[in-house]
Amino acid sequence: MLLSVLVGAAELGRGRVLTEIVAQLTGGVSPLSEREAAILWDLRVPRTVLGVLVGAALAVSGAAFQGVFGNPLADPYLLGSAAGAGLAVTLVITTAPQSGLSIPVQAAAFAGALGGVGLTWLIGRSAGPDTATLVLAGVAVAAFLTAGQTFLQQLRVESLQQVYLWILGRLSTTGWREVLIVLPHLVVSAVVLCLCARLLDVLGTGDEEATSLGVHPGRVRMLVLIAASLATAAAVSVAGLIGFVGLAVPHLVRLAIGGGFRIIVPMSLLFGGVFLVLADVLARTLLAPAEIPIGVITAFTGAPFFAVLLHRRRA
């Protein structure tokens, strides 16, 4: 986290930044000008904090989805949250200026993500109670919503760049407001998922065995999916569609620490935050002063990891 605060387009001096942090903690004299202090405390620090929160939200949601579906290739976007958010944001960007409406992109993304998951749940549960049916419903819903998004983009070609920038994910337009959007949703979701982590291990033994141990598989899955989808929607609403965090990080935890979901779920919070902050540092520094969308960085690192997982599953 400290590294993320130290780097940026504006050169503040690492020693002066460290002195400023100490001064704020101890009540000392600030070595920075008013403009430099604003860059540090209103841009870099909230961006770093948001990176931790978004990374933690996506990673813990990915771990939860993998536990619910019993599939290590599951990720937080499996049930249509990404497609729903993408359609909602595209709708706002392409139609709001012409209609005179003023709808925040964050609100649209949050509602769209939850709407996509809700639609998947309704279709999946009406077709059957098993998780495989729910996954197929998610595929169908995501395909339909993505088609709608593409149609809207073709109607308003001039808005393509703005839509694509959001889709690729970014932390560059963040402040304390975005931090306050994600924080309460992540806290609630993280508490629920950590409390349910042991139950995910029980579900891994099979529904019959779980039922014999007094666990209701359907209720546990519903609670976990609601909590994970809430965290995912909050993350997507402020940072766009950042891929592979929810897929790769839980596996990194398994490789580094091992253990069941009672360990993987809470540790994914920590590893996810660190992973995304490091990705953001790379996004800001590789082509400085230009900035690479953070979703590109996570894709470059996550896609090869995904390929390795597929190879190991076939071996």
UniProtKB/TrEMBL annotation:
Subcellular localization: Cell membrane
Molecular-function annotations in GO: transmembrane transporter activity
Family, similarity comment: Belongs to the binding-protein-dependent transport system permease family. FecCD subfamily.
Name this polypeptide is given: Iron ABC transporter permease
Residues annotated as transmembrane: 49-70, 76-96, 103-123, 179-200, 220-249, 261-286, 292-310
Topology versus the membrane: Multi-pass membrane protein
Keyword Membrane: yes
Alphabetical list of SUPFAM superfamilies matching this protein: ABC transporter involved in vitamin B12 uptake, BtuC (SSF81345)
Organism domain of life: Bacteria
GO biological process, one term: siderophore-iron import into cell
Database matches in PANTHER family: ABC TRANSPORTER PERMEASE PROTEIN MJ0876-RELATED (PTHR30472:SF25), FERRIC ENTEROBACTIN TRANSPORT SYSTEM PERMEASE PROTEIN (PTHR30472)
Keyword entries, A-Z: Cell membrane, Membrane, Transmembrane, Transmembrane helix, Transport
Coiled-coil spans in chain: none
Cellular component terms (Gene Ontology): plasma membrane
